[in-house]
Amino acid sequence: MGKPDGVRQELWALLCVYQALRTLIAKTAVIAGIDPALFLQEGGRCRIRRSTPAQKFLLESVRVDPDEGGAGGAAQADRWATNLAAAQQFHAREGHLRPARKHVETILVGADGEGNGGEEVAVKLGAWLDNSRRRAARLSPERRAALDELGMRW
After folding, report:
1. Which pTM was predicted?
2. Which of 44, 108, 142, 145 could lock onto 118 through a cystine, CB 3.0 to 4.6 A?
3. What digits encode the pLDDT tens for the residues 88-103?
4. For the segment 95-151, what is each residue's pLDDT rounded down to a tens digit?
5. Phi/psi at 57 (5° precision)
6. Alpha-helical runs (H) found in the chain
7. How far apart are CA 5 and CA 136, in angstroms?
8. Longest dimension (CA), the chain
9. How many CA atoms lie within 13 A of 14 on its CB side?
């Protein structure tokens, strides 16, 4: 067994590393335009959560206002638009909106009207539609109407 002083030193070192990583993550999120208070990774997607008092303290310690809105809402709206565009492309090609759960639709984002430029983005369309069905009660009326236009099976 280790000596008590050595254990304290090791715990202190771990806490210092932890704090340094938290600071790095918070500052990186701010630089990337993501509100760190909203930044909880889940499958690569930002999820909005309420900040706890401890999180607010940590955010304030790196000079981030935890009550100020960040880019989380804008990023979420962009993701919604990309996913909806993939659904529209699939519907135009197939005539229905019932892809397999594992279907991936590739779309061009940021291209001009003739398909020049832009970036190819792979959208996990089947999973997104399945998740949208499960969260139907929480969708805004506009989003629900957009999916209804495509013949969404709720």
Report:
1. 0.53
2. 108
3. 999 999 999 999 999 9
4. 999 999 999 999 988 766 666 767 899 999 999 999 999 999 999 999 999 999 999
5. -60, -45
6. 4-31, 53-61, 72-94, 125-134, 141-149
7. 56
8. 71
9. 6
